[in-house]
Write a structure and sequence with these properties.
Elements (H helix, E strand, L loop, with lengths): L1 H4 L3 H13 L7 H12 L4 H13 L7 H13 L5 H11 L2 H12 L2
Length: about 110
């Protein structure tokens, strides 16, 4: 855990995955989202995608489809292959104004 706490994005991502699956630590969606967010803010595309899913479904965070779209957009920009599907899902449930808000949030990160 010390590498994740020291700010290493790969360690943060993997720690989030461990909490998500309960591997070596108790399963905890809130802790998973916390560590995914730490890695996502450093530009880790898989963490951005997993955080997008968390916000889209409300896993460990409050359900927020605009925030989900933001993180999926960043993951897609980073080349994560599944991110486009998440953007398509968001496009089906968000208004054009909400999509614009998500894009603004992504640009401000």
């Amino acid at each position: 855990m010390s590498a994740a706490e020291a700010g290493h994005r790969d360690a943060q991502f993997y720690l989030g995955a461990c909490y998500s699956k309960g591997e070596g630590v108790p399963e905890d969606e809130s802790e998973a989202a916390k560590w995914y967010k730490a890695a996502a803010e450093q530009g880790e595309p898989m963490a951005q995608f997993n955080l997008s899913v968390a916000y889209f479904c409300g896993y460990g965070v409050l359900l927020d489809r605009i925030e989900a779209h933001k993180w999926a957009s960043l993951a897609a920009t980073g080349g994560y292959p599944g991110a486009q599907k998440m953007l398509d899902k968001g496009g089906n449930v968000l208004s054009p104004d909400q999509i614009a808000e998500a894009q603004l949030r992504a640009a401000n990160l």
